[in-house]
Amino acid sequence: MDCRQQSINVLYWNANGLTDKMLAFLDYLSKQNVDVACISETFLKPNSKIDSHPDYVIHRLDRVDRPKGGVAIIVKRNLKHQLQPSYNTKLMECIGIKVFINDTDSCHILSVYLPRGSKGGEIDLHLRDDINKITNLRGNYYICGDFNAKHREWNCNVANKSGNILQEMSGEFVIYFPDSPTYYPEDRNKSVSTIDLMLSNSNSNLETTELQCTEAMSDHCAVYFQIKTSKIDRTENTVYRYDYKNANWKKFKAQISRRIEDNIGENSCNTTDEIENHIKILSELIMEARNSSVKMKKIKFESTKLTPEIKDLINTKRSLRRRWQRSRDNQLKSELNYLQRVINEKIKELKNKNWNKRLSEIQPSNQTVWRIAKFCKKGSKTMPPLTNSGKTFITNKEKASALSEYFREAHENPLEQNDPQHTQEVNNTVKEALEQDNDENPELTDVNEIVSIIRNLKNPKAPGLDEVNNILIKNLPEKGFEYLKFIINSCLKLNHFPKVWKHAKVIPIPKHGKPASELSSYRPISLLSSISKILERVLLNRINDHLEDNNIIPNQQCGFRTGRSTSHQLIKVIKSAKENLNNKKSTGMIFLDVEKAFDRVWHPGLLYKMLKLRFPLPLIKTVRSFLSERSFAVFIKGQFSEIKVIKFGVPQGAVLSPTLYNIFTYDVVRETTNNIGLFADDTALYHSAENSADIVTHLQHTGRKVQQYMNKWKINLNKQKTQALFITNRHSRQLPGNNIKFLNENIKWETEAKYLGMVIDNRVTLKPHVEYVTNRAHTALRQLYPLISRNLQLDVRNKLLIYKLAIRPIFTYGCSAFGSMAKTHLQKLQVLQNKFLRIVLNKTRYERITDLHTEAKIPSIEGSRRKVASESSTVSLASQNTE
Questions:
Q1: Do 244 and 343 belong to one domain?
Q2: Which residues pair with 225 in a beta bridge?
Q3: Which of 80, 229, 341, 574 can bridge 817 by disulfide, Cβ–Cβ 3.0-4.6 Å?
Q4: Is residue 59 a part of any domain in this protein?
Q5: CA dist 695 to 462, 556, 579, 699, 700, Å?
Q6: For 27-81, how does the pLDDT look when each residue is reduced to its tens digit (9 = 90+)?
Q7: Contact (Cβ atoms closer than 8 angstroms) between residue 566 and residue 558
Q8: Do 109 and 252 sit in the same domain of this protein?
Q9: Cα–Cα distances in Å, from 754 out to 456, 566, 572, 760, 766?
Q10: What does DSSP assign to residue 753?
């Protein structure tokens, strides 16, 4: 902890638009050692990106319903603080933090803005309530910002409505203001005023210095003050990471080899406790070797630094602004505006130069380009306070606990009590079979299989709680591989999946476009032990061998199967519907959504089906061990939630989970209908006929069978996301007269529906899909334009790589199913690609289209369609079903 600075330096300022001023302002904050800056009138929107600084974190509340407005707080990273929940004000825009000064003292600092031009009636109605809300805080508070409140008490020439209300309420708090005016209107006929104020509770036990007007960086002066205290606990802001590129791998291997017994691979464990102990020993060996063989390096966060020339221009501008404030001379104002334009242009040139320099150093194989591309698309945001059922969760510990309970509830199966007779039969069968002694010997692994698995591990994958990552595993010595073989074979012999490998560290990731303050807006990413995935791969190899040898998974299932993808399923569905249209038949389709499919798998049901499919008993017992007693804890910025136990479901992030789900639902075709399309949990029912009544009757019958199957195996369907689509060329009077009944609800026939990411319309023109992907591609272009624009120095190979992997797949997705698409729609996608290639290659519109594609080494849209369709046709024909 750094306790040397004995004050918190606070500045508040009305920016009158922050984007163009941000770089110079951050430089000023760093130079003046400001800890907290409260900004009003940022003029930012939620998708606005602004400059950042490695020493500061920025919290924003952007205005979304109308232009301008917006507030923000910029805080030094080494100052311990928490973003506070919304204050639910009606008129005032307000964002606040709680600063933890030391073990005994804390304070609230708020940035507020009362919009100018608020109607008198609204001020009477809401302003008092708003002020009561923001001042009803426990402990010390400092509320800073532009109140647009005038009163003679704080040296304004006149008083206004909000000023009178603020003065009337001043018995509840103290109003602080600087000696000199804070606002200098552009219109010289308007008088200067003091409207940038600070409110604090009168019983504050923290001393503050007098407010001082500092630099005039807009039409408002920035106001500065200090919060005095005897001690401030500051956190370490330096980030270190292991430098694997310069690791001493020879030393790493030698250290591990010395500690492992020579004949370890020839032995085995007799108890599960011994296995757990050996896993602990191996993990500790790897960590000790890493700590002595891999040095840590300080991570440097790059930011644009102003040049001496720009700093001189900024100083000149500030001097000129002070002269104008004193004289209000029009000539000085014109000079000031001109100088501001020059500074903006210089800063823009500087940022482009630095950006070009950084991008020019990136090689096509470098992962940096993807990190930058990801940031350009998503940005970086802090998690706000979370709310659920009227409760607010502010601290990281509270957030982690709330999310852990929410994620745990996802594993509760609402159909748990369904069909008790069948449930009892399944439970008894599984219990009786798995309590038998093993007569079979499990198929053990060898070093060759383990090395083959390890070679295919991806380096960037995050490790689990043991911190053993794939880079360390790949660099194990031969004795390390022998030790792994010993542990894994011991697990296979004892049908045991180690308990330490069944606990997940869960990182909550925000869902795109969802409100960040709601629990439902986060998805769990489970980080499991990297070593455990080697055992999972060994098990998966044996499961897949049995599945393929016995042809268990039906052709209708394309999910998580080698050589199959969503394209194969789309080809089958769309081609079938189009052919039936040509044969004057209509097609009815029902798209089902399985709710929390992987999270709610019924374990006894899965094991029961594995028994019926005659999987080796030792393998089934090991799978049971893999599924049972799994747990997780949510991790947010150094804080773990309490441990939660999972009762249902296959574990998220596990290698085995998709295949186990396919086994769990392998018999859905046999028990329902052949006219079904499956991709993991995405399910489509369809039927074609000349008569619409026949289609409805058949789908109703199939729907009842699917419901019975789902209820029997405790699979819950989501009524709200179930859609029905009627594909036909017939007139409206020949369409089905009634909605189809499914899950005891009437589901209306839609004119279009999304299936596996493709928008299918009722005539299979795919025109809505073209419009959908065109909009998405343009959005991606806008987000990634800073990386691929014409004037940037990024290597063309990198630009093409970004285009091929981040933009082009958006509008070529499912292109193998574009055979039914009209040439006019296909041409729209081709025009889109032509436009993007001209940007990436910096070509004019007069460049031949064939030359563009030749230089980029990218096929046309039609060429891509033919190639993918040819590759997909064999598999899709294999999965084609006759009605």
A1: no
A2: 10
A3: 574
A4: yes
A5: 49, 20, 16, 6, 8
A6: 999 999 999 999 999 999 987 888 888 899 999 999 988 889 999 999 999 999 9
A7: yes
A8: no
A9: 34, 13, 15, 6, 11
A10: E
Mean pLDDT of 527-534: 96
Structural contact between residues 491 and 622, judged by C-beta atoms closer than 8 angstroms = yes
* Co-location of 278 and 317 in the same domain: no
Residue 866 or residue 626, greater confidence: 626
Distances (CA, A) of 411 to 519, 599, 658, 741: 15, 5, 16, 28
Beta strands 93-100 and 106-113: pairing type? antiparallel
644 found inside a domain? no
Whether residue 499 contacts residue 280, with contact meaning beta carbons closer than 8 Å, is answered with no
* Dist CA 391 CA 685 (whole Å): 42
Tokens 């009757």 sit on residue: 697
What three-state secondary structure class fits 61? strand
In which domain, by residue range, is 772 found? 767-881
For the ranges 632-641, 662-671, 823-832, the maximum mean pLDDT occurs at: 632-641
Tell me, yes or no, whether 877 lies in a domain.
Answer: yes
CB 485 within 8 A of CB 492: no
Strand 71-76 and strand 56-61: the pairing is: antiparallel
Mean pLDDT score, 7-16: 94
| 839 and 862, same domain (yes or no) | yes
CA distance 132 to 583: 72
Tell me how many domains the chain contains. 5
Kindly report, residue by residue over 170-192, the tens digit of the pLDDT.
988 999 999 999 999 888 788 89
CA distances from 200 to 138, 197, 205, 211, 272 (A): 12, 10, 11, 12, 62
| Phi and psi based region of residue 460 (left: phi greater than 0; alpha: psi -120 to 50; beta: remaining) | alpha
Which amino acid, 171?
G
* Structural domain contains residue 322: yes
Please give the full DSSP string across 499-523, using - where no structure is assigned.
GGGGEEEEEEEEPTTS-TTBGGGEE
Residue 733: pLDDT band (50, 70, 90) is low
pLDDT in tens, 88-103: 999 999 999 999 988 8
Given pLDDT bands bounded at 50, 70 and 90, which one contains residue 674? confident
93 token code pair? 């825009």
Does residue 144 sit in the same domain as residue 254? no
What is the DSSP pairing of strand 212-216 with strand 221-228? antiparallel
CA distance 102 to 234: 8
Q: Does residue 339 share a domain with residue 254?
A: no
